[in-house]
Write a structure and sequence with these properties.
Blueprint: H1 2-8, E1 10-11, H2 19-25, E2 30-33, H3 41-58, E3 62-65, H4 69-80, H5 89-93, H6 107-122, E4 130-133, H7 139-152, H8 158-168, H9 175-185, H10 190-203, H11 213-234, H12 238-260, E5 266-269, H13 272-275, H14 291-299, E6 304-318, E7 327-331, H15 339-345, E8 351-354, E9 366-370, E10 386-390, H16 391-394, E11 397-404
Parallel strand pairs: 2-5, 2-6, 3-4, 3-5, 6-11
Antiparallel strand pairs: 1-8, 6-7, 8-11, 9-10
Helix pairs in contact: 3-6, 4-6, 7-8, 7-11, 8-10, 9-11, 10-11, 11-12
Length: about 425
């Protein structure tokens, strides 16, 4: 495999050197950009530059990310100049107050936000570039959004929304409390959330306006229903709750695509574990699916281009426990024999690789591929941070930064869990 890497991997010093990767995207309508951690500066900056080029050169329509829908709406409204939007990008990022705040409240993303705002102010496109969150965690925030909007518009659907809200109220906005109650005691709000989703979907046409209200309320209703299912399930099965989460991301994505039209072209930012096709990893053996797999299955491999990211060593932003303050941690040299180690052995330089019909068989052996989460213990990473992967099938391209640096978070005050 080292010989194959020496043959096919190409060095790069800037995004301008990635022209062949942009060309390899071809006419694909779905470009998925990964990352092997949520706390690495280079992953954000390189993805931002690739995103700009995809918008300018290939006409991509919107960005969808591994983030909460309500918080990402603050970015979407800002870059589109919709009413009630914030006055500057730092104020926008104050909306990302759920732990881990650093995923989106960071200096690296600010530049992209300002670029998108300027692009939208000058474009003649019917639909301006959007920025949307696909994740499932914002149960309470999405309920707040729905109830607030329906109250403001004195809508008949408000009664159904209030029933759902009242069902969750005893748990005082605590996800773990609801998870235990619903998962172990069968005291759940499934009926109420599904009724709310059905009501909103039937009546979303009433809310069509130039503020994207119909899309906003529909996806918030999707989040409410799927978050209820996610928290109810997570206390019993990690794999089932994972699948609920990734299916929700694709459902939310499909709602945005319908809003933009079937010709929409989509850029997705998520962790490698979500975008790299699960069928090419040991996730398949555990009955797990992910966004990359589902998008390929729905739209066909020719319409989808997935780019993974990785590093040999460096620093990263992460936490030692869920919900505690972040730290700058050292990323140790990659495990011997892993994908990142082999790429480093070909030369301690930044490289990119395009997988195609001519070379994917040379990268078909299963090999460990590093994945760093928001909770990270570098001293123990060899025991659980490497995903067995068929790299030639998992991705269409790969970007390797030999030594990476920690992300630069923006302090937003107290951390909310």
């Amino acid at each position: 495999m080292i010989d194959s890497l020496k043959k096919y991997a190409k060095p790069f010093n800037s995004v301008k050197d990635l022209d062949p990767l942009i060309e390899a995207v071809g006419e694909a309508k779905y470009v998925l950009l990964g990352e092997s951690s949520h706390g690495t500066s280079e992953y954000y900056t390189i993805r931002a530059e690739l995103t700009k080029r995809l918008i300018l050169e290939k006409g991509f329509s919107f960005i969808a990310v591994e983030g909460d829908w309500p918080a990402c709406q603050s970015i979407n409204r800002y870059i589109k100049g919709l009413s009630s939007s914030a006055k500057d990008s730092r104020k926008v990022l104050e909306g990302f107050n759920r732990w881990p705040t650093w995923m989106w409240a960071n200096q690296e993303i600010m530049g992209l936000i300002e670029w998108l705002k300027e692009f939208n102010s000058k474009t003649n496109r019917t639909n301006k570039i959007g920025f949307y969150g696909l994740d499932v965690y914002s149960l309470w925030e999405s309920l707040d959004e729905i109830v607030g909007f329906l109250e403001k518009n004195n809508s008949p659907e408000l009664e159904t929304a209030k029933k759902a809200y009242a069902c969750f109220e005893p748990h005082n906005r605590n996800n773990e409390s609801y998870a235990v109650s619903a998962g172990y005691l069968s005291d759940d709000c499934m009926k109420e959330t599904l009724e709310l989703l059905s009501t909103i979907q039937k009546n979303k046409w009433k809310f069509e306006d130039d503020q994207e209200s119909s899309l906003n309320i529909e996806v918030n209703a999707l989040v409410t229903a799927h978050a209820e299912e996610y928290y109810r399930t997570m206390v019993k099965s990690d794999s089932d709750s994972w699948n609920i989460r990734d299916r929700h991301m694709v459902d939310a994505l499909n709602s945005i695509i319908k809003f933009y039209g079937n010709e929409a072209k989509v850029i997705i930012w998520e962790h490698n574990t979500h975008v790299g096709d699960a069928r090419a990893t040991n996730m398949k053996d555990e009955g797990m699916i992910n966004v990359g797999q589902l998008v390929r299955e729905k739209y066909g491999k020719d319409e989808v281009f997935i780019i993974g990211f990785g590093t040999y060593s460096g620093t990263v932003i992460a936490s030692t426990e869920w919900g505690v303050h972040f730290e700058v941690m050292n990323v140790p040299p990659a495990q011997t024999g892993s994908w990142e180690d082999l790429m480093h052995q070909t030369g301690a330089i930044n490289q990119y690789l395009i997988f195609n019909v001519h070379n994917c068989k040379e990268f078909s052996d299963t090999i460990g591929h590093r994945a760093i989460g928001v909770v990270y213990h570098p001293e123990y990473e060899h025991f659980g941070n490497y995903v067995p992967s068929n790299m030639g099938q998992r991705y269409d391209g790969f970007i390797f930064v030999d030594r990476t640096n920690a992300l630069h978070p923006i302090a937003l005050g107290p951390i909310l869990i």
